[in-house]
Design goal:
single chain, 448 residues, alpha/beta, Arc Repressor Mutant, subunit A, 7-stranded mixed beta sheet, 3-stranded antiparallel beta sheet, 20 helices, 10 strands, SAM-dependent_MTases_sf
Amino acid sequence: MASTRSQVETLVSYIQHAAQDALAEYERTGFNTPSLDSIVAHPLDDVLNTIALKRAVRMLEGACDQLCTTLAPPAHTIINRAQDTYWACLRVAVENNIPNALAGYPNGVHVSELSNKVNIEPGKLLSILRLLAARHCFKEVEQNVFTNNRLSITLLSSNPLAAYTTLLTRESQIAAYHLTETLADPKDGPSQDPRRSPFVRSLKDSNFKGTYYDYLSTHEDRRNAMSRGMIAMNAVIGTLSIIDLFPWSNFSTLCDVGSGIGAFSMSLLEHYPHIQITLHDRKETIALAEETWKQKYSANIEAGQILFTPGDFLEDIPAKGFDLYYYQLRNILHNWPDAQSILILQAVRRAAGNNSHILIHDYVMQPLSRGSESKVGGTQLEIAPTPLLPSFGSGNIRLYEQDMLMLNIYNAKERTIEEVVELGRQANLRLEKVWDLAETSVLEFVTV
């Protein structure tokens, strides 16, 4: 085994090379790499991160975190992680529209004046802004004077990322607080019932008895936040990367299952205008999708190229015999325990034709020990070089955070390739190929 000094030197080398790769990817667009002070979006910020940039950042984050964790005393690292309240300050910033209040003030606003704009006591507001600015969200231009920067400008209320941030810092954190007591409960602890998740437990005083989806159906503001937030999530994780990789031109019809308002299909239609698209989701969501599409695609709707089909994809998919069935990351297998996941796959198998392809866009759980890589043929995901963890560790941290999010909200989980293959087998589906998008993957199934 290499010495710790040798491992540290290797990690430093990875950081240097990955930083150069990231710089090259930014500059490939013809624009300079943006500074933290910039409030103008770079082309790579706007719609999707390229796979090359995602790979560079994955290496940077994995190597930097492992380097710091190696060299810092353990108590230093543990306390930093246990004490972290950055998420709470982000929620305050978004829900009080602090980025909006600072918009148009490049020289900054004193916290006493900003306090009047956002109705937060100035001393408490100062503490919140200091913590955020210490990690480069907002900038303190002079003492107690703050302005927007490259990170905070993405939290303007007009940006779907603001809605997604509220989801992650409200429901997600409330559920996480109840994780310990849920695990200790003799009924809830071993259960995979989505009605026994930590999030549902957080609502026990209100006598709520459903799943998270039932909660959304009766809370319009949170349902709308979810729909808008998924637009941001798709951009952040590089969902649209599959548009550049998959041979969409070979197919004519697509059913977007669990479509939300159809953000992915909008982007797909821009690149492949020949595809006939059917959006399929819950009744409330499809109603919102139809209104959204009418704003720009009314001619496509009138021509019958875009269809809207409300329903429950656990029970039936009305689009029969389509070329492609695309399941988005937002509410597919990782949101459901095994029993419901099998129902989802059986429903699409009933709808699919003999030549249909089923695309499941999801995180794929990766091992943290070497030699544990997937043995399923033709599905090898990229493995990090030593001494990094094989999954890139913190460079792929959203995978593991997403796994916990699924547990806390839905009582579900992210799955390994082997686990998804087994679910598919029980629904008469065979894994054909895994498309590696450097964070998420698209698992392509065919019928058997």
